[in-house]
Amino acid sequence: MTPTLVASRTTLPPEGAVPPKGGLSAERSFPMLLEVKRLKVAFAGKEVVRGIDFSIAPGEKLALVGESGSGKTVTALSLLRLVQNAEISGQALFSAPNGDVVDLLSLPEGSLRGIRGRDIAMIFQEPMTALNPLFSVGDQIAEVLQLKQGLTQYQSTQEAIKLLADTGIPDAERRARSFPHQLSGGQRQRAMIAMALACQPRLLLADEPTTALDVTLRGQILDLLSDLQRKNGMAVLMITHDLNLVRRFADRVAVMENGHIVEQGPVADVFANPQHGYTRKLIDSKPVRDVAVHQAGATGASPVMQASHVRVAYPVAVPGLRGWFRQGEFIAVQDASFTIAPGKTLGVIGESGSGKSTLALAGLGLLPFSGELLAAGQPWTRQANRNKAIRKAVQVVFQDPFSSLSPRMTVEAIVEEGLLVHEPALNEAQRRQRVLLALADVGMGEGEEAGRFTGLLQRYPHEFSGGQRQRLAIARALIINPILLVLDEPTSALDVTIQKQVLALLQRLQRERGLSYLLITHDVDVIRAMAHDVMVMKDGEVVESGTVFSVLEAPCHPYTRVLVAQA
Asked: What's the pTM value of the predicted model, to 2 decimals?
């Protein structure tokens, strides 16, 4: 279906267009800070942004939403001509501080360089890759101030410390001397914001600024951006696929699909009465609970995993002279106990650093621990041969399928790998048959959707979308018929529509196979949709546990209440 275009305020709408809701008419009495007209972006002649129109008023917050591949990030980057090898046409009219209106797409590079960072700044999606690992965050912020505002080294250093403090980083003077890898995810994101706001820009382009953050950190970053936006009076173009973030942050929203803006208007109007089918699809993509109330084996059967007073600690160096004689320790998990019954899901929720992934690794026998932990009725040992039976019963699906699937192996080699270890008696034809069955189970059979997966077995991971790669990872785990899957943030890297599909797949597999899940996540909506029981972790300790309804509907611990409220 060809998307319906939305007209800009300066052109007549194409036939059948959805009219913009509220606030884009030519009668607007105040000037636009940025007006984009018929923006097109192409690579090697193939258009990825197809003649879009939108505008941003001074002090306004506009969210550009859509799935991966819709063209929203390319749109933002093209405004500052930061996309390599791109063919860009159209207009991006920007109201300069002196009152002149300039076209960002036709400015000489030298003039545009003066606008970048000073009048229009950008927060990139992943601060760990956007920040230079060889320089401290303070030096990187100071460099912007020296280049754009002509401050001395001392002045820029002091201003960088002040900016870090303004973004809520504690002990800003010490943190300014830290390198990116020495900061947490939230602190790195705050450092990126401090750098972007160093010159008090009039327009901030924020590309998925909270995607990699926990729910509480997301709320903090949103509050910070809102406060700074009001304080500085700047406009914000937010690039995101998180609809909860849009509801909370933006004034207006523009929805992109396949390079087109299919709908735009005030957030309340668009969410209350979406006109385009794609917008309705995004809004309806919230995870749906579809798990059996009474699971097979739930009455008196032996648990598939049982932990009692599990403790995980890492050795750390002790500073000073004392470090010569003894080592310290960092306690990552303290006194954790839980039980997972056959056919049920235990959800473990908490912020980064709470210990939930460490607990999962201990459950997989990949970390040393103290206490008692039984998987498939057997304890983990230090002897690999004795653990082989447990490893067949307990499999894992990791957070990022692109990094967990070998780029040098074909689909067939990836999925059949477990059979080579656990069922070596199978011949090549038998293994291939099992691989095809496992792929069909996850909706990737070669005959599915009119041959979309033709030649599937000989293809490589980079040839698939994020959701398809996660299906491959699930097939790899299922092929040896485990009884328990450890799911480590299985949907956090996926768009909302793909997330809903993967969760529905996991729910179906649980019903059909009687699988149990240990689900690690920071997403409360995923817990609501998937879990039978939930365990809340903070700073390595279990602060609350119980059935998913008792914990999430009536949380007792203050930390749980914060998590639920932020969601």
From this structure: 0.73
C-alpha torsion sign, points 56, 62, 68, 73 = positive
- Which residue is associated with the tokens 């790669």? 469
Per the structure block, which two tokens stand in for 220? 């903090």
Residue 182 within any structural domain of the chain: yes
Residue 446 has a pLDDT of 63
Q: Tokens 């699937």 appear where?
A: 405
Where does a domain end: 284, 300, 322? Answer: 284
Contacts of 131 (CB under 8 A, 6+ apart): 137, 140, 180, 188, 191, 192
Of 164, 154, 109, the closest CA to residue 131 belongs to 164
pLDDT at 10 over 50: no
Same domain for 139 and 113:
no
Distance CA 216, CA 148 (A): 34
pLDDT of residue 391 exceeding 70, the answer is yes
Element (H, E) at 199: none
Tally of domains within the chain: 3
Residue 38 has pLDDT above 90, yes or no: yes
Q: How many residues are present in the chain? A: 567
What range does the domain containing 149 cover? 128-200
Q: What is the CATH number of the domain that holds 378?
A: 3.40.50.300
Q: Cβ–Cβ contacts within 10 Å for residue 79, how many?
A: 21
Among 167, 287, 161, which Cα is nearest to 222's? 167
The CA distance from 113 to 107, in Å, is 10
Q: Is residue 314 part of a domain?
A: no
Of 267, 284, 301, which one is at a domain's C-terminal end?
284
pLDDT tens per residue across span 231-248: 878 899 999 887 878 888
Please state whether beta strands 120-123 and 34-43 pair in parallel, antiparallel, or not at all (unpaired).
Answer: unpaired
32 and 101 together in one domain: yes
- Integer angstrom CA distances of residue 56 from 35, 60, 118, 247, 412: 6, 6, 18, 18, 49
**105-123, pLDDT tens digit by residue?**
999 988 888 888 889 988 8
Distances (CA, A) of 194 to 21, 92, 176: 34, 26, 11
Q: What is the 3-state secondary structure (H, E, C) of 507-521?
A: HHHHHHHCCEEEEEE
Share of the chain above pLDDT 90, in %: 44
112 and 132 assigned to the same domain:
no
CA angle, 348 as apex, 347 and 349 as ends, to 5°? 115
Q: Residue 339 CB: number of other CB atoms within 10 A?
A: 14
Read off the pLDDT band of 551 (50, 70, 90): very high
Q: Are residues 469 and 503 in the same domain?
A: yes
555 shares a domain with 418: yes
The torsion region of residue 223 among left (phi > 0), alpha (psi -120 to 50) and beta comes to alpha
Domain membership of residue 302 (yes or no) is no
Q: What is the pLDDT averaged over residues 489-498?
A: 79
**Do residues 111 and 119 touch, judged by C-beta distance below 8 A?**
no
One-letter-per-residue 3-state SS of 29-97: CCCCCEEEEEEEEEECCEEEEEEEEEEECCCCEEEEECCCCCCHHHHHHHHCCCCCCCEEEEEEEEECC
